[in-house]
Structures are given as C-alpha cells and as structure tokens.
Amino acid sequence: MKKKGALLATLLLGASMLFGCSGGDKTATEPAKEGGKEQGTIKIGALFDITGATGDVGTPYAEGEKAYIEYINSKGGVNGYKIELIGQDYAYKIPEAQKLYQKYKASDKVSAILGWGTADTEALRQQVAADKIPFFSASYSENLKNIKESPYNFLTAASYSDQARSVLRWIKENHTGGTPKVALIYNDTAFGKSPIQDAKDFAKEIGVEIVDEQIVDLKALDATSQLLNMKKKAPDYAIIQQTWGATATILKDAKKLGIDTQFIGLNWTTGEGLLPIAGDAAEGFIGVVTHAFPYEDLPGMAEVKEYLATKGEKLEDKNQKFIQGWVTAKILVEGIKQADDPTTGEGIRQGLEKLKDLDLGGLAAPVTFTADNHAGTNQIRLAKVENGQFKVFTDYFGY
C-alpha cells in the first residue's frame, strides 16, 4: 500500500500543477493536521509579476510560492486535499489583474488568491470582499489593514507604514547629535506612496524632522537630479520605498555625488538581488528584513533544503524573495489546514482566523489573525550590507 500511495503521489505531481500539504508548523490554537483520506482539489489563484515594473523581486517571489505548494503536495495533501495553483504573469498592470481575477473566480472557481501589487490589490479589494475570496498580496499597504473595507485581505508581514514607523523609531533611538533629519525617496505609484503620509505623521509625533521628499521612477537609470536636490537639505538618513533596480540607481548615484546620508530601505529594497547591480555602492546600506535570508541557520530552512534537494538545488541558489514567497504560501496553507470547510473562501477565512502566534521557524515573524485583525504582525529586523552581504543586526522589533 505504501508503494502504491507513493506512486500515486508521483503521478499526480508529474501530470499537473497539483501541489499538496506537509505537516508544517503548528498554531497555538489547534495542531496542524496532515494527510487524511483523499478529498479532492482546492484551487488557488495567483497573480505574478514576472515581466512588469517589479519583476526583479516578483520573479523569485513567485518561484517561492510555487515551490512551497509543490513541496506541500509531495507530503500528502491538506487533510486529504490536493492544492492546484493556477498562476499567470500580469506584468504589474491593473487591467490584466482584474481580467485574471474574473477568470480565477468565474472559470477556475478558486477558493483563495495569492496576489502581488499595491495598486491592483487595492483595486480588487471590494470585489474580493463581495466574492468572499481570501487574498494574500505581496503588497503590505496600510489600507489593507482596515478590516471593514478589506475583510478578505490578509497581510503576512509588517505593513509598509509599520515598517517606516519602526525605522523612524530606530533612527530616533540611535541617532546622536540633535534632532535627526530624514528624507523620503519613493516612486509615484500606489506602492511607492503607500507609507509616506503615515511616515510623516509618525516622524512629527516622535520628534524626527522630515526635510525632503524625492520621487524616483521604479525603472529609473539615473537619480542624479533628485539626489542633488536632496543633498541641499543635508538629511542624516533617507528612507527608500522601491525595489532593487531603483534602489541600486539611487545608491550608485549617491556614491558618485559623495553623499554621506545613511540610506535605509523598506522590505522590497532588501535582498541579494540588489548587491550585484549596486556593487560597492551598496556597502553600508541598511534594509528592512521581513523574511529570512537563505544563508541564515534557522529551523524553517530545513523544509526549503529538503524541497531544493529534490530539484538538485541548494539554498545558495535562492534569495530572500524566494523565501518570502515560500512563507506567504505556507501561511495560507496553515489556514487551510485549520478550516472546517477548506473548499470555500469563507471556510478558509475562518481557518486563517484561528492562527495564533504561528511559528514559521524563524523564516519570518510569527503571525496572528483574528476576526477583527488581519494584519499578521508589525515586527521587522534590520540588516546592513557588509563586505557584499546583508548581515542582520537586530532582533524582531516594532515601533
């Protein structure tokens, strides 16, 4: 029987995109359940940015999501169910995201969705609420924390605003020599602008001076004019809300201009993909860390290593955004495990709301969801680039 069961699992993996569920972590409320009698399939939709403006970080993130679902399926299913992940590249375009959402809902009849960007996630949230489909985006917009307006959106990491608040708190507590002066650098998108007003409000509250704001396009290859304008205000620190590409441009141009401001980036600036394109200009850069680096020795890496070994790959072949996608899919699966009816969006939401201090093996801060709060955590770490590698120098903290 064991041989037949193993053969069946192998055939299922080879024949389709079906992926299933391992034991994983346990919640503080109920133990995670494994295997079980074969029940059928749970369909999950996914919006990937592979070719769009944020494809630099979107590609490894999507790979991580797909990898975790595949890993999970190889372990026998979620309480007897297999997971089918139906994902497509929407190239960071809102109309394409809306079209795919309608397809996933009407044709594919998915029970939950793994989303991506801020603008499309916010554009879809009313439809998501009406259709009662749990939606895990890679956007950590503060707006998605509003449970009345976004009852089916879940944040699996600290919101951009909470990240900015925590950075400002760290600046306030560690700065010497008077009132710290801070500049804000961001792109003119919903993603870029998401934390800006909250950052300004919190800075005023704690006694940090915001002295300048500069807009740099996500695909910018030159930021000289913006940085020259910023230099006139002589900020001690500059907080960056970008992805790897624009961040590298900012750091390289700042080095050319001899700017000695301490640059600190929110989570999508951080990761190994920044280092080869920024070169030595990345030295000293500080980044917000919401998810672990593959080279960290953490309990949660065991599953990742196990999966990669089946593909002939190693942890060093992957980067932090792969881990971020892996963890996001893992949290959704943990909610499915707890659901009384995992085939419906309402059932999965109720399962997710049972998760309390979900231990992710150090890959991310523990998350808790309740009926009144879908913001899983407000905790971050900080890492500094030293000798060409991000080195974490804080424990998890909030503001």
TrEMBL record:
SUPFAM superfamilies: Periplasmic binding protein-like I. The keyword Transport applies. Keywords: Amino-acid transport, Signal, Transport. Residues 1-20 form the signal peptide. One of its GO terms (biological process) is amino acid transport. The keyword Membrane does not apply. Belongs to the leucine-binding protein family. This is Leu/Ile/Val-binding protein. It comes from Anoxybacillus thermarum.
